[in-house]
Amino acid sequence: MNINIRQETISDFKQVFDLTERAFEKLEISDHNEQFLVERLRNSSAFVPELSLVAEYENKIVGHILLTKLKIINGKEEFQSLALAPVSVLPEYQNMGIGSKLIEAAHLKAREAGYKSVMLVGHPNYYPRFGYKKSSDFGIRQSFEAPDECCLAIELVENGLKGVSGTAEYPKEFFE
User: Fold this and answer.
1) 70-92 pLDDT, tens per residue?
2) Backbone angles phi, psi at 90, to 5 degrees
3) Domains in the chain, ordered, with CATH?
4) CB 79 within 8 A of CB 71
C-alpha cells in the first residue's frame, strides 16, 4: 500500500472534516465532535500548519493527524510541548498501518521543527508502541480529569523532558 503523507492544505479542510467525523462516528469512547476540535484548533494560536498532516492513498485523503502547541507549567516556569489530537483514519482504511505512518511522520516533522516532546490522552495499549509512557512518569499531570494510564508523553529527542515537570495546559479549544 503506497501511502503519501504531506502537509494539509486549505483545500483539504472539507475532506478532513468529513473523514474525521467518519473515523470517530462508531467509536464508543468518543464525543463525536473531533471534527469540530480540528476546526477550532486550526483557528487557534496553538496551530502549527506544518504539523497538520494528511495521508493519501490513490489521490484520496484517508487519514489526518494534528499536533498543536501546549505548555507545561510549573510555577513560573513554562516548557513548550505539543498535543497529539486527533489522529483519524477512514474506517475502511483502519488497521492497515496508516495511523502509525501518520504518527511517525508527525513525530519526525515535530523533531525537525525543534520540538522535544508530545503529550496526548489516548488508548494506553496503542501509543506505547511508538515510545509513549505515562506522563506522570515524567512528573507531568493534566489540567483536567483523565485516567493516569491514558495520559501519555514521548520525548522526541533524548532527554526531551529532562528537568520538565508540572501541569500540561492544553489549548482552550480542547474544552469548548
Assistant:
1) 999 999 999 999 999 999 999 99
2) -55, 140
3) 4-175 (3.40.630.30)
4) yes
Please give the full DSSP string across 27-52, using - where no structure is assigned: -TT--S-HHHHHHHHHTSTTEEEEEE
Q: For the whole model, what pTM was predicted? A: 0.96
Place of cell 502547541: 69
- Longest Cα pair distance anywhere in the chain, in angstroms? 49
Q: pLDDT by residue (tens digit) across 124-155?
A: 999 999 999 999 999 999 999 999 999 999 99
Classify burial at 22, counting beta carbons within 10 Å of its beta carbon; exposed 0-12, middle 13-18, buried 19 or more.
Answer: middle
Query: Burial of 158 by CB count in 10 Å (0-12 exposed, 13-18 middle, 19+ buried)?
Result: exposed
User: Helix or strand or coil: residue 7?
Assistant: strand
Contacts with 117 (C-beta within 8 Å, 6 or more apart), sequence order:
81, 82, 153, 154, 155, 156, 160, 161, 164
